[in-house]
Specification:
Length: 96
């Protein structure tokens, strides 16, 4: 499964009114998120990709993946938990 986590997403996260330091912080955050997503299982990464990067609802994700809405919610819960653990494991200052 290819996740659409390319540089164009990082570019979209940048606000043109951001100063250079803020833009760099946003880029660093996007990179940390990409690294965290790579730590997820394919099934967890798939639901995160569909919800956050493709703006799909829980119902739409269930229809697309062929799993129940409850399973989508469970996978989102564990994916967010795993991402939080990943971020907490980073050295201080790695995420702005």
């Amino acid at each position: 499964m290819d996740l659409e986590l390319s540089d164009d997403i990082a570019d979209r996260l940048q606000d043109p009114s951001d100063d250079p330091e803020t833009a760099l912080q946003r880029k660093n955050t996007a990179e940390v998120l990409r690294q965290g997503l790579a730590q997820l299982s394919p099934s967890h990464a798939e639901v995160v990709d569909l919800v956050y990067y493709h703006d799909k609802s829980v119902k739409e994700v269930a229809e697309i993946t062929g799993i129940s809405e409850a399973t989508v919610k469970t996978r989102m819960f564990y994916a967010r938990k795993k991402l939080a653990e990943f971020v907490q494991s980073l050295p201080s200052g790695a995420v702005h």
